[in-house]
Write a structure and sequence with these properties.
One of its GO terms (molecular function) is monooxygenase activity. The chain has one domain. It contains 5 helices and 4 strands, in the order H-E-E-E-E-H-H-H-H. It has helices spanning 2-9, 41-44, 48-51, 67-70, 90-100, and strands at residues 16-19, 24-26, 29-31, 36-39. The protein is globular.
Length: 101
């Protein structure tokens, strides 16, 4: 729990940059192909709408029921990002760090 909360508040990568491979229309906003998209991980991890009123506070107990129940969204913890371009070291880092906790 402490490890997940530390990763939430102090992510190693505060911002992720991706390029749109296709054009899209999301909630009325047109995103042309090739547009650079900035994903502010540090800001999302402190968003009160996602993590609750104490989003800026260190509260490891919010992970007591698992990562998926800690926030309002199942994939809210983005310390290693998600999908095919997520951190390749995640599977190595987490077991080692969990042994230290």
């Amino acid at each position: 729990m402490v490890l997940y909360e530390t990763l939430r508040l102090y992510s190693a990568v505060p911002l992720i940059v991706r390029r749109a491979t296709t054009g899209a229309d999301h909630c009325g906003v047109k995103v042309p192909k090739g547009t650079l998209l900035l994903i502010p991980i540090a800001m999302l991890h402190r968003d009160e709408e996602v993590w609750g009123a104490d989003a800026g506070a260190f509260n490891p107990l919010q992970f007591r029921d698992g990562i998926g129940r800690a926030a309002m969204h199942l994939n809210a913890l983005l310390s290693f990002f998600l999908g095919p371009r997520s951190c390749i070291g995640q599977d190595f880092a987490m077991p080692d760090n969990c042994n230290l906790c």
